[in-house]
Design brief:
Shape: elongated
CATH architecture of the largest domain: 3-Layer(aba) Sandwich
CATH class of the largest domain: Alpha Beta
Structural class: alpha/beta
Helix content: 25-40%
CATH superfamily of the largest domain: Response regulator
Distance between the termini: 33 Å
Number of domains: 2
Order of helices and strands: EHEHEHEHEHEEEEEHEEEEEH
Length: about 240
């Protein structure tokens, strides 16, 4: 895989540092070097770009403001001389931020994160998975479409499938077994007792997930993974 890269910075020396680093890696291709956000926007409209190395403190339109207009792609790696400004990049879902002066080691770590994120996004884009579960309950076998499941709840020695139509189905199995049977990209384990369908999440915070008519807690041991998954898929409050 090769990533097409765009450099956006109003400082010529900073541009050349990133350019020189890009030339040291065969899997990175420079598309253009831009001194202004408007110029970068023109390139993005007409060229395939995977990663933007974006200075935060830009004239007229800041890098933060510009990044918020980009959506999921291209991926953004911020460059800045200010750690305080770097902290503000969190809500843009940037891959990483690099503090100037930028070492090649830090640059390489950021690029590796970009490759990992690109692979995950490609996987998510191609993961339209439709699956039907055969669930034994009440001396019957129920066919449950995965996309009809809001969440799965573990209660002692059984689980309850909570469905979009308001119905629920109880089965004597484990939540771990159910998790293995469901499309892993479509569901996230938020708690030892809860497995949630990502597509039905309406909102989330650091401690809770909101589904239609239900609010569920995020377990402490699952928090980092949950927030990373939801941020990656751009589910916002």
């Amino acid at each position: 895989m090769k990533l097409n890269c765009l450099i956006v910075d109003d400082e010529p020396l900073a541009i050349e540092v990133i350019h020189n680093y890009l030339e040291r890696l065969d899997n990175l291709q420079l598309v253009a070097k831009c001194r202004h956000v408007a110029e970068a926007n023109t390139w993005l409209k007409n060229t395939s770009v995977d990663v933007v190395f974006l200075d935060i403190k830009m004239p007229e339109v800041t890098g933060l403001e510009f990044a918020r207009t980009l959506g999921k792609t291209p991926l953004v790696i911020f460059t800045t001389a200010s750690r305080d400004l770097a902290v503000q990049s969190y809500d843009t879902h940037a891959v990483d931020y690099l503090i100037k002066p930028i070492s090649f080691e830090k640059f390489l770590k950021a690029v590796n994160k970009a490759f990992d994120r690109k692979k995950e996004l490609d996987l998510l884009a191609g993961s339209v998975q439709h699956k039907t579960l055969l669930v034994k309950a009440e001396n019957k076998t129920f066919r449950i479409d995965a996309d009809e499941i809001h969440f799965v709840e573990s209660i002692r020695d059984h689980v309850v499938f909570h469905l979009a139509n308001g119905a629920s189905v109880m089965s004597y199995t484990s939540i771990t077994a159910v998790e293995k049977d469901l499309p892993e990209l479509d569901f996230v384990r938020i708690h030892r007792s809860y497995l949630v369908a990502i597509r039905h999440i309406k909102a989330f915070s650091n401690s809770h997930i909101e589904l239609p008519n239900t609010t569920l807690p995020i377990g402490r041991t699952h928090k980092d993974d949950v927030l990373q998954r939801l941020t990656l898929q751009h589910i916002h409050l």
